[in-house]
Write a structure and sequence with these properties.
Order of helices and strands: EHEHEEHH
Strand order of the largest sheet: 2-1-4-3
Strand content: 25-35%
Number of domains: 1
Number of helices: 4
Shape: globular
Helix content: 10-25%
Number of strands: 4
Largest sheet: 4 strands, antiparallel
Radius of gyration: 13 Å
Bound molecules: zinc ion
Length: about 80
């Protein structure tokens, strides 16, 4: 089950209040309290605190592996597999 949706920071929309700090990493993890498809298009708070718009068609477990994803979100959502037996 997905516990995170993918959020996209939209500099075109948010740059007036937050110049530049959302530009370098566009993809963020959003804690999904509902299925990501239901959150599609919603504006939510990402795990790292950025304000993003949910992109329900994407899966964080894929997007989060990309370099363009937010490093902070990647760290916060990293599965705790290292301790799994
Ligand atoms: Zn983030």
């Amino acid at each position: 089950m997905d516990s995170y949706a993918v959020g996209y920071a939209r500099p075109d929309r948010w740059s007036r209040s937050r110049p530049e700090d959302t530009v370098s990493s566009s993809w963020h993890a959003v804690e999904a309290h509902r299925p990501p498809a239901e959150l599609d298009g919603e504006v939510e708070l990402a795990a790292c605190g950025a304000i993003v718009q949910v992109w329900g068609a994407h899966r964080w477990d894929r997007v989060g592996a990309r370099e363009t994803a937010c490093a902070e979100c990647k760290q916060l959502t990293r599965p705790q597999l290292s301790h799994a037996s």
